[in-house]
Amino acid sequence: MADNCLIAKTKKRRVAGNNGPRRNQLTEYGIIATDVPQEVIDEIMSIATTYETNDLRGDNYQISQHCNVDDAFTSSLSYKQILLQQLADNTNDEIDEVDETNYTKWRDDLHCPNVQKYLETKFIKPYRTRISVMPPGNDLNWHIDTDTSVLCRAQIPVVTQGSKFQWKTKQGQSEVEMITGNVYFVNTGWLHRVVNESENVRIVLIFGVDYDNIPDKQAITL
After folding, report:
1. Which of 68, 97, 100, 115 has its CA at 20 to 30 Å from residue 127's CA atom?
2. How much is the CA Rg of the chain, to the nearest whole Å?
3. How many domains does the chain have?
4. pLDDT tens-digit map of 141-157
5. Pairing state of beta strands 163-169 and 103-106?
6. Number of neighbours of residue 180 by Cβ within 10 angstroms
7. Is 108 exposed, middle or buried (0-12, 13-18, 19+ CB in 10 A)?
8. Which residues contact 171 (CB under 8 A, 6 or more apart)?
């Protein structure tokens, strides 16, 4: 990744914080909720299959305006993300544009009341909620996002059969195939990637969450 990329420049802000345990104090993954309503799953699926724009490489996603997406995420042009929460209106500093916690404004042009209600009820304050759509045969580059002491990450699987979320830690490599209906904590403080070797399009909802707002902390604490 180029040194002038804002993701690289702001790395120190994501390595350590005071908002939760460090990455090695939590598991690589864990189920933190099991009550995702069907209307939430249906709403994610509807948006994923009808919204044609790739926000990861578009104007809605300020991160992609400052960095090479091919280096940071994947070189696959068919992999896309759909932002449901965009950058807050009062954010003007380009450094703050790559801060996940500044993506708090629900988009007016995408109708997702069920997703918003569930996340705000269960997790209080979600950040940069987006839908990941990965076609068959795609994968993400190995990368580290944010230490859990800064911000945690969670996913709601919609279609994940045959795809794997993988980690590399000091103990070795691990992976999980997610099951629809659950919410998974994913530890992005370790090297991780997604591999989709199935014949299905992988569809998941991704969002940031403060450690204190995770409902079942015991499921992820070592």
Report:
1. 68
2. 16
3. 1
4. 898 989 999 999 999 99
5. unpaired
6. 15
7. exposed
8. none
